[in-house]
C-alpha cells in the first residue's frame, strides 16, 4: 500500500489538536464549574436513599 506512512502523522496531529482543545476548554471554563461538579457526589437530594 502506498501512502500508508502518512496515517501515523495524521493520527498524531489529530491527537495533539484534541489535547490542545481539551486543555483550552478546561482552562477557559474556570475553576468554579469544576468545584460544583466535585461536590455533586456529596449532595444529599433524597435523604430516603440509603
The helix-strand sequence is HH
Low-confidence stretches: none
**Mean pLDDT across residues:** 84
Number of helices: 2
Structural class by SSE content: mainly alpha
Largest sheet properties: none
Features:
50 residues; mainly alpha; elongated
Describe what you observe in this structure:
This protein has helices spanning 7-29, 31-39. With 50 residues, it is mainly alpha-helical. It is elongated, with a radius of gyration of 20 Å. The termini are far apart. 0% of the residues are buried. The mean pLDDT is 84.
Summarize the structure.
This protein is mainly α.
Map the helices and strands:
Layout: H1 7-29, H2 31-39
